[in-house]
Amino acid sequence: MSPAATSSESATTQADAPQTQVTLGGKVITITGANRGIGLGIAECCLSNGAAKVYSIEIGETGDDFAAVAKRYPGQLSAVNANVTKEATITAAIDKIIEEAGALQGMVVNAGRTHHKAALDFTKEEIESLFNINLFSAFYTARAAARAFIKLGINGSVVFTASMASYRPNKRVPSTPYGASKAGVRNMTHTLAIEWAQYGIRVNSVSPGLVKTAMTYWVPQQPDWEQQLKYYGGFPRLAEVQELGGAYVYLLSDAASYTTSIDIPVNGVIGSKCSK
Predict the structure, then answer these.
(1) What is the dihedral of CA 73, 157, 207, 53, to 10 degrees?
(2) Domain segments of the chain: what residues?
(3) Taking residues 87-109, what's their average pLDDT?
(4) Which family does it belong to (predicted)?
(5) Which of 1, 13, 58, 93 is the most exposed place for a label (fewest CB within 10 A)?
(6) Fold of 23-266
(7) What pLDDT, on the 0 to 100 scale, is given for residue 14?
(8) What are phi and psi of 193, to 5 degrees?
(9) For the segment 100-113, what is each residue's pLDDT rounded down to a tens digit?
(10) For residue 158, which of 200, 103, 202 has the smallest C-alpha distance?
(11) Which one from 137, 157, 163, 207 is the annotated catalytic residue?
């Protein structure tokens, strides 16, 4: 074998070598619902791990928390308006992002909402609203991203935000429609991973447990919260939104190039059992 051939094969091997560093170096990442809460925590973690640009797809205006993170990362965090329950508007938002950034390597399907009450008390409108935002919009967003990846010839990554409620209910905060919609997200993760592997697209999800956000402010204010913590075991607190970010960063990174069709629970053990 000639030295030239050996050199060429060595270069090819190096180019194709698995990535051993967990980094988003130079990647363009889009997150639905990153104006605040979990989505903004994910955005912050992506930026602190080398993402070139992070875009939030929002239905409304961004707030002070978003502005504070954007100030720390000048020119790297932006928002694009779209109604995630309408696939055409999601596609238009993704097209705009690609036109501006030149690429798209990762999509975090995070937008969602919750509503806790007894199943018999839910109205038709409330049920449909939860499924529209948590499940239907998740499918539309993932499909729009996959079409963009295929068109660009990019081995992209889709990461859904599921929930520990997709595994088992919590009797203290019941929400049958919420849990069912998030279980649908986890099933969709596995099915889309199978369908899109042929395009080099990886599809995974993260299932947060109890996280400190505007939607969970009331949780530690319950009179028997200390007793609940003793029952649950695990870390005796709610998670900070940034503590979820590592799972998303890994799944979006090239270090996860052979990781698809999995869900990563990030729950500190809390929420891993039904409460009495």
Answers:
(1) 10
(2) 23-266
(3) 97
(4) Belongs to the short-chain dehydrogenases/reductases (SDR) family.
(5) 1
(6) Rossmann fold (3.40.50)
(7) 41
(8) -60, -40
(9) 999 999 999 999 88
(10) 202
(11) 163
Task: Enumerate residues 6+ apart whose C-beta is below 8 A from 194.
Answer: 261
How does DSSP classify residue 168?
Answer: S
Q: Mark whether 167 is an active-site residue.
A: no
The pTM (predicted TM-score) of the whole model is 0.87
Q: Which of 182, 207, 248, 250 is catalytic?
A: 182
Residue matched to tokens 């990846």: 149
Residue 70 Rama label (left phi>0; alpha psi -120 to 50; beta): alpha
Task: Look at residues 208, 210, 125 and name the one whose alpha carbon lies nearest to residue 172.
Answer: 210
Told to judge if 276 belongs to the known catalytic residues of this protein, a careful annotator would answer no
Supply the pLDDT for residue 221.
Answer: 64
Q: From CA 97, how far away is CA 80, in angstroms rounded?
A: 8
User: Is 212 marked active-site?
Assistant: no
Which one has a higher pLDDT value, 273 or 255?
Answer: 255
At 42 the pLDDT is 95
Identified catalytic residue from 55, 140, 178, 232: 178
CA–CA dist 93, 137 (Å, integer)? 14
